[in-house]
Amino acid sequence: MTTARRAFLKTATGAFGAVALAPWIREAEAAQADLVARARATVADAVLASARRLGASYADVRVSRYRVESIATREQQVQNVSRTQTAGFGVRVLVNGTWGFAASPTLTAEEAQRVTAAAVEIARANARLQRRKIELAPAATIETSWKSAFERDPFDVAVDEKLQFLLKLNAAAAATKGVSFVSSSMLWVSEEKYLATSDGSRIEQYAIRASPEFEVTAVDSKSGDFQTRESLAGARSMGYEFMSNYPWMAEAQRAGEDAVEMLSARPVEPGQYDLVLDPSHLWLTIHESIGHSTELDRALGWEANYAGGSFLTLTSMGNVRIGSPIVNFVADRTQPAGLATVGYDDEGVAAQRWHLVKDGIFVDWQTTRDLAPLVGRKSSYGCLHSASWDAVPIPRMPNVSLEPSQQLASLAELVSGVERGILIHGAGSYSIDQQRYNFQFGGQTFREIVKGRIGGMLRDVAYQSRTTDFWQACDGLGGPETYRLDGSFYDGKGEPVQSSRVSHGAPAARFRRIHVLNTGRR
Length: 522
Prior knowledge:
This protein is of the alpha+beta class.
């Protein structure tokens, strides 16, 4: 069953026109929720019975329901309010050591039997091309339910309350003289999954994820130059309380001031600089250079056709120095507010926390039940995920974070040790090669550091390095008080592409003698 409905706006003459969800939208959501709740056990039983009868050595089924709400504004105008929902089930079977998958939006026992037969047929067809039979690491049998931590379900919050918040945010950003344009939005996603496996697991999960953001643009009418500053707060797995426990209004005002200041910023002189990177910037560098390079399927070449492989190989574990001795990266599917945080992955493996890099040395991979045996692991780290009910589950990145120093070092202390450097906030443009090795990153704002003091704004800044050179150049980490979690809704992988959500935490960090170029020079 799939429904996609749009709530069209009814705006009054004032800035805050009354907007509410039509009653039929609530009724449609309630009807779909009731159908899924009543049908999921029936569908699961039919799938597992059919898979066993058709010769599958293993099978799992995910009955899932998703809701998405998107709200967008510009200055004091409402641009869009939309609400969609979709539900269905996906079946994965293992036949003769080969995977098969099929899915449907029709939640009936008859359809479950048909889809399971299709998945088995696909597995048998795939087996003709399979070079090595798939082996699964064992997993515990689990019967439980899990819900992500949130205080206020955003789908229960009135649309008008959300709109008023965004319009107030726009006004705060536009208060600075010289700001020309402001846009803001909220994106809320709810994910309900019911997993049943032939191993006997039955797991129900419900998660809320949030991605509010804004963008401020200042224009110099004389020169035609314009500069844009985006919000620094990343997406998180939180409820509507995110809009009150983060200083959105203060940041919007600061963003307006930054955008105007950027118009008169001095172009950076290319050369080598010490960099002090704020967590709002560093999360993306972590994602691209560490998060992707430690995906085992990528290192095996399974992702090379779409998004590249990895400079790491099967012999790298324990043998490759990625960072300096103070650099420790953890993979964590239990991290509070993490976008990749779950109770269990899509084959019933409990969420875990483990080191990918310890004391600068690469020590472990991201694994699933069929990847773990390939590197001698007897159990999976629980990294299997499907982006929708109709998407085949594939290995996906957990939250990957840089651990802070336990020395309680502050941003000011990191800056004080820099003679000639740049302080960078916010994620910007980036480029990285197919092996996740050579890269270039920009940012949102750049401030000069001279003799341990933060100075004026710079512009046209990007830095270049190699993954191992960069992380080995890290000689200072902020303490826990500088640590922050950021992330993205849009981590693409697979063919057809699946867009997943993942977070990366980091403290403020210092890197020595990194090559900086001027992106504005021709």
